[in-house]
Amino acid sequence: MEAAPGTPEELQRTIAREIKLNADLVKAAGVVPQQAGRGSAYTRAMATRDAFAGYCAELLSPLGPVRVKRMFGGHGIYVDDLFMAIVVGETLYLKVDAQTRPRFEAEGCAPFTYTAKGRGRVSLGYHAAPAEAMDSPALMRPWAALALQAALRARK
């Protein structure tokens, strides 16, 4: 059974394919890495994901102190110790609630969903950030503020 696009399972399969492709390219080039096998390719894949999460943290930093934590094959992002965003693959998802969801939907921002065993498709309260907002902290600021407001309301 094929995993749906954007699910953690599909992300894991994509990463596994990339790791194998990198290993095959290294082998074809005749390069023998110091740490052959999964370790070196895995380290490069994690560094790429960490770099993107770091970039997302930079985009959100005008709102306050940002902390990034690895979790569930992705990253969680906190601003002022409020959990307000997740990074899966190369997509930043911002916290939404009933008040902010319509703004994200009007921009065509996809919700974060995954397939849960026995429950089917599950949608959490996160939507992808608008593509143009990913260009700078100034463009991200209004969207990040909406996510921070949703996180504050969820905390009460």
Q: What is the name of the CATH superfamily?
A: YgaC/TfoX-N like chaperone
Q: Uncertain runs with pLDDT below 50, 5 residues or more?
A: 28-38
CATH fold group:
Yope Regulator, Chain: A
Strand element count: 6
Strand content: 25-35%
State the major sheet. Answer: 6 strands, antiparallel
Q: Return the CATH class.
A: Alpha Beta
- Span between termini: 40 Å
For the record, the count of structural domains works out to 1
Structural class: alpha+beta
Helix content: 40-55%
Shape field = globular
The CATH architecture can be named as: 2-Layer Sandwich
Order of helices and strands: HHEEEEHEEH
Give me the Rg, rounded: 17 Å
Mean pLDDT: 81
The strands making up the biggest β-sheet line up spatially as: 1-2-3-4-6-5
Number of helices: 4
Strand-helix topology:
Blueprint: H1 8-28, H2 38-60, E1 66-71, E2 74-79, E3 82-88, E4 91-95, H3 101-106, E5 111-116, E6 120-128, H4 137-155
Antiparallel strand pairs: 1-2, 2-3, 3-4, 4-6, 5-6
